[in-house]
Amino acid sequence: QAIVKTYSNAWKNMETALAENRPDLIDESFVGYAHDKLASEIKAQQKNGLSTRYLDHGHQVQATFYSPEGSAVQLQDTASLEVQLLDGDKVISSENVTRKYIAVVTVVEDGWKVRILDGVPGF
pTM for the full model? Predict the structure, then answer.
């Protein structure tokens, strides 16, 4: 249950961080590869004066692997989203998509954080 809540909060933090170009918001939920990838994406958006807005229409999340020592969980997520690219307040593209993600959530010093969040073509 804690892992599902962590993953859900991570998505909310990611959505806000990408919409507002605020890399500080990803620190709460992401570490390692996922953190670095999102920070880089936000930096590129800032450089180009763009932002990304996710309108979340739901996720189907399934745990597919638990590490034997209990420090990591792999999730498969089928997300239904509307992805909007904005230049200032103006929407310059909008797309309804169903995307599949593989996520790895790991134990860190103060709880769980998303270490990997990658879009994949299928499961």
Answer: 0.92
Which residues touch 88 (CB under 8 Å, ≥6 apart)?
A: 49
Q: From CA 101, how far away is CA 11, in angstroms rounded?
A: 12
pLDDT of residue 55: 96
What is the spatial order of strands in the sheet that 72-87 belongs to? 50-66, 72-87, 90-108, 111-120
Domains assigned to the chain = 2-120 (3.10.450.240)
Exposed/middle/buried for residue 70 (C-beta within 10 Å: 0-12, 13-18, 19+): exposed
Task: Categorize the per-residue pLDDT at 2 as very low, low, confident or very high, splitting at 50, 70 and 90.
Answer: confident
Give me 57's structure tokens: 């229409």
Band of pLDDT at residue 75, cut at 50, 70 and 90: very high
* Strand boundaries in the chain, DSSP class E: 50-66, 72-87, 90-108, 111-120
Q: How much is the mean pLDDT over the chain?
A: 95
Cα separation, 75 vs 87, in Å, equals 33
